[in-house]
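Feature request disguised as a bug report, sorry. It would help if multi-protein outputs had a clear separator. Right now it looks like this:
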Amino acid sequence: MQSVKAADLYLKELRAYKPTPLNPSDSDGHVHKFKAPTHPRVPDEGDIAKDLKAYEEQKVEVEGQADEGTESKVEQWFEEDEDFETPPPPH
């Protein structure tokens, strides 16, 4: 019997509850206003011809390539194990 009275009291309070109406200004302070991003600025095109000419005149550098007039030194990076150079004689 006690649970029925509690359920009736709960339903009575639930029916009496009237939520406050929402206003468009209720979100002020909680949500940022939308602001479109700014357009990117166009880079300066005044020195493009000069920069392109300087780029084309650069000397190409390749790793491991010798300079003009000097001989390239080949580095031995593979080291062979002396034990495996010659196979053992058959028995």
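(second protein starts here, but nothing in the output says so)
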Amino acid sequence: MPPSKKAKTSTENSKQEVPADEKLKVPESSTQAGSKSKPHNASSAVPSKRKANTNDGPAKAPRRSARGAPQTQPDHVKLINYLLSPDSLDACRPKDEIEDVKNRGTDLRTYSSTTFSPFEELMCAVILSRPISHALGLRSIRTLFNDPHNLTSPKKIRDAGFESVRKALDEARTQHRQKTAEELVLLADAVVEHLGDGEDDVSLEREKEMLKTHVKGLGKTGLDIFGRRIQAQWPTPYPFADQRTFSGLQKLGLPAAAEELKELLDNSWTQMNVKGLGGDEDEKKRRVFVQILERAVGVDLEGNADAVREQAAPSPGK
């Protein structure tokens, strides 16, 4: 049985941190977009040239003066094709993940480069909703999903039990281990008890409210993370871009509104480098859409937006 909630560490009681999926690296003169702003879809995310009313619409990404703006302006097709290429991966990854892949090989399952099952995506959403850094969140996922733990299904988690989940998080050297382990066990229990055995996961798409109710770690932020990723597999949420993607897309110079980004893909599809992607055309478009969102978020969190723009369209003479 999981320890009592009174066993929380002082770190877990801290209210100064923000979720791993929302931590930004911005200049000291800039301000961070509010992490509690309501995630949104479609056209409501379009940035305005005028100062927005703070009571209307989503929080905007940090403003930058024209003097400090990046000079490189790659066209959208070149930028997207670069984001789709393996060359952009390291710009989206924390340094320890880059080293981990070098040491353990490309078969290592990572959040940055692997398509997970729906249940695994839910686990990732719970982990990334915790107030930890991007690097710690991704390290936790790698530790849980790879040898020797391989905690990748409701059955495996329930069979392993709370202590084994907690031990894996200890090995990941992350924060909030106790709370995260409790929430992952609750997630496995909720899926099994309310959705059958949960191995197929197909009914999760219809049960978001149940998950929000029964899994405390999967609140609004977690469901948005899950919705952003799962649309590669499920057509219903598509096109969906949550508030967290807004900053990354804007810094890269891509449309920040979901419908506008989808329209860009539709209009430029024949120029996209999608060789090797499986599925029909609609599925490929969803997968490309999700990859763009995920790379934009990773690049933003790692502070590499300007470097990616330069790599996508090098300045003359470079």
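Even a blank line would do. Unrelated, but nice: DSSP finds 14 helices and no strands in the chain.
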